[in-house]
Target: ABC3 transporter permease C-terminal domain-containing protein
Amino acid sequence: MISLATARERWTSFLGCFVAVALGVAVVTMSALVLLSDGAKVPERLAGAPVLVQSPAGTQTGGVFTENPPWAPQSAEELRRELARLPGVVDAVPDRSFYAQAADTEQRRGERQGHPWSAAALAEYGLSEGRPPVTADEIVVDRSLGFTPGEPVTVLTARGPQRFSVSGTMNGPGYYVTDRWAAELAGGVRTIGLLLESGTDATRVAAAARRAVGGDGTVLTGASREALAPKQDEMTRWIGGQVLTAIALLSAFVTVFVVSSTFAFAVAGRRREFGLLRTIGATPRQLKRLVYGEALAVGAVGAAAGALLGVVLAPTMTGVLIDAGFQPAGFEVSLRWWVPVAAFATGVVVALVGVGAASRRASRVKPLEAMREAAVDNRPMTRRRRVAGLAATGVGAVCSVGTAFAGADALVLLALGTAMSLTTGLTLLAPGLVGPVIGALTRPLARHPGAPAVLVRENMITAVRRTSATVAPVLATVAFAVLITSTVQTTQNADTARQAAAVRAEAAVVPRGTPGLSDAAVARVEGASLLSTTVYGGDGRAALSAAGVSSAFERVYAVPPPQGDTVVVTAAVAAAHGWRKGQVASLTLEDGRTRRLRVTAVVDDSMPYQVFLPRDVVRDHDPSALADVAYRTTPAPTPLPAGLSADEISVEAYAASDDAEEDRLVWIFTLLLVAVSAGYTAIAVASTVLTATAGRVRDVRVLRLSGATPRQVLLTLAAETCCVVALGAALGLAAAAPALFGTVHGLREELGLPVELSLAWPWLTGVVAGCLLLGTAATVLPARVVLRRLP
Model:
């Protein structure tokens, strides 16, 4: 017959497993629903054209999203004419874009574009008031900007601020000028929209357009026009996908960890019950089936609740991702019935996998365990566990050594492997480490030889399994929290130092509220500027980041600048395309024209761009290009009028802020990962401590009968929890330390700079304090209830 205390202990452990499985399945369901939702929409400014023709795609690399290479000017015009002659087509309109932004506004990336007025026919919106632009100083703007026809407006362009008169307003984003003025500011043509006669079948026109285009483009109609959504949105969705995938995998892994540790501790506490079942004839197979049945029941209920919770919270999670920058604005999640079903099945499988070791341990209980009264763990470490723990620790040690000598690509993987292996190894070896480590940590208690101090020390050393089960989740959380946050912080500081050390300049002029510096702003700076653009090289016309530089480039980067028909490339680009110094490289530029340029130098891959061209070459072929930064090389500060939207800052400050948006996303990603792992730790710690406290009612009763006051009982339990959390934190730091020191050494070798370890103390303190607070609350509060019920 099962006692009330045993039943309470069992249901407490079941509750922890239920919550772990439910949360894991909820996270997997939400992540899968968002990942499988396309979320892309046809751009408003092109949605009015039933058929769109897109230029052929170039070679794309993972995580890098660039626009397709434009058609050559002559090819684009010939294709436009041929498409315009198709039956049912009223006109074929080329779409061009250039940088435009009303002064003193900070708009989203997709709204910082100007177009020729002819392209307004492709939009699904039209004029709200006023008329189209007729002269070069007239412009049509989005009415949400607050301008009315006849008002003057200053628009920032690549040339500098331009004064216009508003001739009309539209019900959608964008700036529209005369076609002639747009041709001077815009680059090449990537899209041609077909306007059809009323009643014309778009499918039939699309089929005819495909025959006319052949391999020179892609014909899009209907929902396939979503492929023309801004590449920035595609990149944002890709980043969000990486975040969701990492969170889902981490949730599945930690769910197995929590279920396994919780059931292992529960089985260890039910040895007497299992021994009694063996005494009355139960076979080992029946005991194993019993544990699996309990896990199946808990897993099924938890998975069902988690799948339902994931479906309900998926829209809320989508909103959070949009606000954080991991999904584009307007993204919507679509529900698919099979996703929660698959997540439910995954949750059940995870619960059964997690209980495997516990079921084997239950099947090995002997009938004599029914006679056992003491909570002493005579054999907390089995030979198999000791071998597995030493093997995992050895793998972690090898990975830590490899981290110190690995390159940049393998550095992160080896660091993560070091932490995971050491965490697993120390968790397996924890029962053997508890005695010596607890002895060292509780040595100060020996100076106060009172009953509570003795009980704290002996309880932890005697009940090794209980102590180890509580240590494990704290160890894992501290290890991963310290590793992730400190690695990110150390890497960012090292990257900032690398960028600052590579530049020889007095100061940096950077854009304020705009995506780049105009020619007017750059002209004020006595030094070197980097005119950002994209070029396409090789047979696959791979997109390459490029910059136009002037003669002052050599003073800043100590690299001879390209001049005339020459180009400078990085070593990785040269190796990928087979370019060597003195050879000729064929590059397609932003207006679609191809130029053959001689390679004059091959530079290190640490340079900020892959290709460097003469500045006038970039400006001739990309009228809308903007400079990311201009470095001042003279002692005197640069006077910058407010209308140029630029500021002068130190080189170190620019290096720290250069990747500010990327760093923000990285830290949000880090926060999400730490929050997920810390959340599961809260479940594991609370479940384990509650289970342990529920099973210690008899210990509390004995303490009271022995003369201990309620305050002494609570102090004993709280002190024991504090020591266990301290042990977990110490082992967690021990697991993360080799990976961190190896990473620092690897960065020093890779960058050739004095990189210092930067520990994220606020994160470490917060995680340890959270574990301590939660563990203490989960111990003291139930104990207070027990004390009130005792006579």
Remarks:
- The radius of gyration is 33 Å.
- The chain has four domains: 1-38+230-373, 51-229, 402-503+653-791, 514-644.
- Residues 51-229 form one domain.
